[in-house]
Design brief:
Length: about 170
C-alpha cells in the first residue's frame, strides 16, 4: 500500500480511479486528479510547497517531484507522461507534454503544451519551453517543433496505456 502522509496539516488528495503503486510515497500538499498512475518508488514530496497534478497523468517508476520552500510549486497539466527516474523540482508542465526518462526539470521552468523533453535532458531553472517544442541535451536546448496533433495523440495513447497497465495490479 502506498505511503500517504500528512505533513504540516496538509493531507494529500487523490482523485478517482487512480493507481498508486505499493511503494509510492505521497506527502503533504499534493492534489492528484482523476485516472492518474503513480508508479513504483515514485516520491511526490509536497512538504515544503504545493504539487498539483491534472487528470490522466502517469508518473513512472523512480521519479521524484519536489519544490523550494515558499518559492516554487509544481503544476502538471492533463494527459502528461513523466518517464522513469525523472526529477521535477518546482516546475510547470502543461497538458499533453512528455518528460523523457531520466530528465531533470528545475525550478520555475515551464514545459509548454504538447512539448517533449528528451530522455536524459537537464532543463535549467527558468527555462521556457514553448508549446509543441522538442528540447534535449544538457543543458536542454531547442531541437525542433513537434506536430501538435502527433504530440497529443502520442500522449493520449501513453496515458491510456498506463491506465491499462494499472488495472493489472487490481486483478491479483
Amino acid at each position: 500500500m502506498a505511503i500517504i502522509q500528512t505533513v504540516r496539516g496538509f493531507t494529500p488528495e487523490i482523485g478517482e480511479g487512480c493507481f498508486l503503486a505499493a511503494n509510492a510515497v505521497i506527502v503533504g500538499d499534493v492534489v492528484i486528479g482523476n485516472e492518474c498512475s503513480i508508479w513504483f518508488s515514485t516520491v511526490l514530496r509536497g512538504d515544503v510547497n504545493s504539487i498539483r497534478i491534472g487528470n490522466r497523468v502517469n508518473i513512472q517508476d523512480g521519479s521524484v517531484l519536489h519544490t523550494l520552500y515558499q518559492k516554487s510549486t509544481i503544476e502538471i497539466g492533463d494527459d502528461v507522461s513523466i518517464g522513469h527516474n525523472v526529477v521535477i523540482h518546482g516546475a510547470k508542465v502543461r497538458d499533453y507534454a512528455l518528460i523523457g526518462m531520466g530528465a531533470v526539470v528545475m525550478d520555475d521552468a515551464v514545459v509548454g503544451e504538447g512539448a517533449i523533453v528528451a530522455a536524459g535532458s537537464v532543463v535549467l531553472s527558468k527555462t521556457q519551453i514553448g508549446p509543441h517544442e522538442l528540447w534535449g541535451g544538457t543543458p536542454a536546448k531547442f531541437i525542433k517543433m513537434v506536430e501538435p496533433e502527433k504530440a497529443k495523440e502520442m500522449n493520449e495513447k501513453i496515458a491510456r496505456n498506463y491506465l491499462m497497465y494499472s488495472t493489472w495490479y487490481g486483478e491479483q
